[in-house]
Automatic annotation (TrEMBL):
Residues 12-239 form the Alanine racemase N-terminal domain. One of its GO terms (molecular function) is pyridoxal phosphate binding. This is Pyridoxal phosphate homeostasis protein. It comes from the Bacteria. Belongs to the pyridoxal phosphate-binding protein YggS/PROSC family. Its cofactor is pyridoxal 5'-phosphate. The modification N6-(pyridoxal phosphate)lysine is found at residue 45. Gene3D superfamilies: Alanine racemase. Keywords: Pyridoxal phosphate. Pyridoxal 5'-phosphate (PLP)-binding protein, which is involved in PLP homeostasis. NCBIfam families: YggS family pyridoxal phosphate-dependent enzyme.
């Protein structure tokens, strides 16, 4: 089978994007939300830099990466494009120095050690970064993120790190065909977000809820997601199953 041409890939990604964006609109209309209140973050892990260049032409100007090394390499290869990079996967302190060079957003903050290192590096660079606090909404031991009951105490420490611009919460719901169990994760996040809006320290914002991926983003929107992280519905199936990329899947 011959490889798809650049034009064929461009048309495929454009069509997939249009489908996802229409489904976002439909999900918003269903619950009386403004479609503009939901941001689509294309997830580009395992997608080649060449294909991402095509995706940029198709309209993907934000890209979310799970692994720092993969994001770093792609940001260098695609450095001539004005891509806004978001790190959406677990971050070790020894990798922080890399993301402060190219990423504009970090969606998986669940450690004060990482917060301190990130703040130190950002202060030295004279810049800030948008961050989301990652929450383990499903209670699965295999997943990163703070347990919901630990989040309020955690965020009370975040004003100590002035370069971190806290925007909201992020989660991965349970990977299940039981939609009630998936929805429960999203409801838990929305309720937590609402409490934080009342009790969080001054200067921290909890307006954003990053939740929902290719298989469940419409459900997430119904329960209040403001950012949906969609990969396969835009770029096609990955070469390996989800369990290879995300802990707790499969």
């Amino acid at each position: 089978m011959e490889a798809a041409t650049v034009e064929e890939q461009l048309n495929e990604i454009k069509n997939n994007l249009a489908t996802v964006q229409q489904r976002i609109v439909d999900a918003c209309i269903k619950v009386g939300r403004e479609p503009s209140s939901v941001r689509l973050l294309p997830v580009t892990k395992t997608v080649s830099a060449e294909r991402l260049r095509i995706a940029y032409t198709a309209g993907c100007h934000e890209m979310g990466e799970n692994k720092v090394q993969e994001a770093r390499e792609k940001s260098e290869v695609l450095g001539d494009l004005n891509i806004q990079w978001s790190i959406i996967g677990h971050l070790q302190t020894n990798k922080v120095k890399y993301i402060t060079r190219f990423a504009h957003e970090f969606q998986a903050l669940d450690s004060l050690k990482v917060a301190a290192e990130l703040d130190k590096r950002l202060q030295a660079a004279g810049r800030g970064m948008d961050v989301y606090v990652q929450v383990n909404s499903s209670g699965e031991a295999s997943k990163f993120g703070l347990p919901p009951e630990a989040v309020e105490d955690f965020v009370k420490q975040l004003p100590n790190y002035s370069s971190l611009q806290v925007k909201g919460l992020m989660t991965l719901a349970i990977f299940s065909t039981d939609l009630d169990r998936v929805r429960a994760c999203f409801v838990r996040m929305r309720d937590l977000r609402d409490r934080l809006r009342q009790n969080a320290p001054a200067g921290l914002s909890f307006d954003e809820l990053s939740m929902g991926m290719s298989g469940d983003y419409e459900l997430a929107i119904e329960e209040g997601a403001t950012v949906v992280r969609v990969g396969q519905a835009i770029f096609g199936k990955r070469p390996l199953p989800d369990s290879h990329y995300w802990p707790g899947f499969g």
